[in-house]
Design goal:
By secondary structure, this protein is α/β, with parallel strands linked by helices. It is built from 4 helices and 4 strands, in the order βαβαβαβα. It has helices spanning 14-30, 49-58, 75-91, 109-120, and strands at residues 2-8, 36-41, 63-68, 96-99.
Length: 121
């Protein structure tokens, strides 16, 4: 089974956290490729990344794609998430985890921004 774990920064602002949950619910509803789609947060919100991966494993997922929901390659994308993934692979050696490029690198980001701005003009 294959799962997608979308990792966001997290916030003390519950409206921000709920926004991520709604996004994941919408992706889950449209998903054609993944057996499970979940979210996790790097800090300040639950579930954390370890809990998110553990939940996917309990669902029977053996192959996890991690999508860092970050616009730029800051320390969280460059160091923190890879460090957590390394620890998870040590704990779950039979698990396949692939960290995808952060969302800000998407080729579609330029068009998304243009469409969004033109839509709001």
């Amino acid at each position: 089974m294959t799962g997608l774990l979308i990792i966001a920064h997290g916030s003390r602002n519950m409206a921000s956290v709920e926004e991520i949950h709604r996004l994941v619910d919408a992706i889950r509803a449209r998903n054609l490729e993944f057996d499970a789609v979940e979210c996790a947060f790097l800090e300040m919100a639950d579930p954390d990344i370890y809990t998110g991966v553990t939940h996917l494993v309990k669902l029977g997922v053996t192959d996890i794609k991690i999508l860092p929901y970050f616009l730029a390659r800051g320390n969280h994308v460059a160091r923190d998430i890879p460090g957590i993934v390394e620890s998870l692979l040590s704990e779950f050696p039979a698990l396949s985890i692939e960290t995808l490029p952060h969302i800000g690198l998407s080729d579609q980001m330029t068009q998304l921004i243009i469409d969004h701005v033109l839509d709001k003009s």
